[in-house]
Design goal:
- Helices cover 37% and strands 20% of the residues.
- By secondary structure, it is an alpha/beta fold.
- The protein has 2 domains: 279 residues, Rossmann fold; 185 residues, 3-Layer(aba) Sandwich (Rossmann fold), CATH 3.40.50.
- Strands 3-4-5-2-1-6-7-11-12 form a 9-stranded mixed β-sheet, with helices on both faces. A 6-stranded parallel β-sheet has the order 15-14-13-16-17-18, with helices on both faces.
- Strand 13, helix 10 and strand 14 form a beta-alpha-beta unit.
- The chain is globular.
- It starts with 6 loop residues before the first strand and ends with a helix.
- The model has no long low-confidence stretch (mean pLDDT 96).
- It binds adenosine-5'-diphosphate.
- The site of adenosine-5'-diphosphate has 18 residues, from helix 1, strand 13, strand 14 and helix 12.
Amino acid sequence: MPEKKYRILFVSSEMAPYAKTGGLADVVAGLSRCLGKRGHEVRVVLPFYRAIRDRTDSIETFLPSMCVRMGDAEEWCAVRRVRTEHNVTVYFVDHDHFFNRPGLYHDGWMRDYDDNPRRFAFLSRAALQICMDGGFEPDLIHCNDWQTALIPGYLRSWFWNHPFLGRAASVLTIHNVAYQGKYPVGHYSYLGLGAENFVPERFEDHGGVNFLKGGVGCADAVNTVSPGHAREITAPGQGFGLAPYLSNKNGRFRGILNGVDYDLWEPSADLFLPAPYNVEDRSGKTVCKRALQEAFQLDPSDNVCVVGAIGRFVHQKGYDLICEAIEPILRDMAVQFVILGSGSNGIERFFGTLPARYPGRVGSYIGYNDARSHLIEAGCDFFLMPSRFEPCGLNQLYSLRYGTLPIVRATGGLCDTVEQYDEQTGEGTGFMFDDPTPRALYDTVGWAVSTYYDRPRHVEQLAARAMRQDFSWEKSAVEYEDLYRLALSAKADYDRSHAV
Ligand code: ADP
């Protein structure tokens, strides 16, 4: 029997290539595209951020004017649209005041916009309005992170009796449980969720409002982005306070590993690279290493070990551990370092000034840069991810495909995707450590570097094995289809038990 095809509405605050600050953007792009290819009808709702306005894609006006009711107030916006290949249509909510700003979530000084709860509540309500005004009747609404976690609440209150939205099931994917959208109670009034939703099982949290918690309570099914992290955040006391609520989902909370869009992240066809390579012929990787050394003003050499890191400079990612360990590493080991990222001021300053103190050995770029991120994945020998926790992590997956061995802390999705190197057999795909300490990081980088110089055959073997790993979206998309079935049947059960 042919598989059932669904009409799916994704709602997200990011999607590559339109708006990206992290993995969420890649996941929404990759998963929606894969589901589209598999025959589902997929639409995505995104804010029309300033950077999207400047794009040259053929973005057309879909709804010139749309009224969105927020509590007692009304907001007006337009809806733009772009049709991409594989059954995916992207809608952009064009609200000048909310979204025509320099940043997605914060200003140039990393201060969150004060009205973020209102901006993303508006996005969530607008997504449902697009369905009504634009005539799209979704079977499923797939929400992502706190920014869109009000939607399951809206579906269970305002839209409960709506002729078609009342039939839609909701799925909430948690890409990062540390960001929950917690605000003082004063913000609750304009959300339009009603007193019945301001209860501890839903949006109320210690007297305030918690967007993600309410989404978990109301969604028909919930998941996070790796099985390992799903286990971790349901353990007692974990999940940044959400463990009991996730455990309460009784089988309707799962871990589904993120995939990789190998159309974008594939060294044999990566347009950002000066030379392609693949597992059979890796000579192009040496060309990439030289280009990387030139781009970051490192001493040119094929034979020196190069370690890279890319990411957000936040506590979660463990960049403070790198800051503490990097100078002893540079003192004791023959390595070059390349760092790309932005975030905490202190860490930006540290990595921004380090190259001047270690000329030819350390290169850094403070900011966001796609081209450089691809070059780092290709040109390095090792990729460092000392995360304190990691819901899935994408960079280690890219590193594997680029034959750049990950050095990671053993947590969440990193544990699920990297196999520890076995010095006896030469098996594995990377190097892992347990303690989130500079010492453990130093030791593990030391282990990797000594393997590079003393057991080059093992490094070759690990790289070949890493490049053959397959984390394509197909497998994960099948698991999402299963989650959608679960959500629809949970929704039917809920409707039956709440029928009047
Ligand atoms: P998270 O979503 O927690 O930031 P992930 O590893 O899941 O971490 O995804 C991060 C994504 O963002 C990767 O695609 C990575 O290459 C990209 N990225 C992060 N920082 C930068 C940067 N400064 N420049 C370019 N790409 C970046």
